[in-house]
Amino acid sequence: MTVEWFFGKGRAGKKAAQLVLVLFGWFFTVLPVVITASALLNRHNESGWWAYHEGFVMWDLTMAFLGILVCAFAAGFLVLHIIDRAGAGRRAKEKTYNQERLEQRLEIAADWYADKFGPEAVRGQQTRIQIEAWGDIETYELRGLYRQNGVA
Q1: Distance of CA 42 to the CA centre of its chain
Q2: Which candidate, 1, 17, 39, 101, has a CA 20 to 30 Å from the CA of 124?
Q3: What distance in Å separates the CA atoms of residue 26 and residue 28, rounded to the nearest whole number?
Q4: Contact (Cβ atoms closer than 8 angstroms) between residue 104 and residue 149
Q5: What ranges in 94-131 are assigned the alpha helix state H?
Q6: pLDDT value at residue 63
Q7: Mean predicted confidence (pLDDT) in 43-63
Q8: Is the pTM of this model over 0.90?
Q9: For residues 106 and 115, is the Cβ–Cβ distance under 8 A?
């Protein structure tokens, strides 16, 4: 939790100094935006306070380039989205796993679990199960069993 001392009581001198710095920073952050907007709004007014015609040409070229770039990215992402959606329907209909291999793996895992912790019927009757620290099932052990049985 952070307590912001600026909004608390006391330290009026520090608060005033921080407020001046913040306002100074915001002034110089907003100033270029105001200058650019004012110049663009008064670009055809010859009595405007800023009339840099080459700058207007560069501004127009930059905005046109950025507009084309944004449109190209939007079109590209739209095409990629359409391709992905078209493929999603196909992917949803097809199996991404081998059913026979999955059944073999489940059987190997069930047999190994039964060897390690006893038959399922006995396990179901126990009210309290305590597994020793060395008795945890590690995935590398199961993967090794899959490799030994040729279903890796």
Answers
A1: 42
A2: 101
A3: 5
A4: yes
A5: 99-117, 120-125
A6: 93
A7: 79
A8: no
A9: no
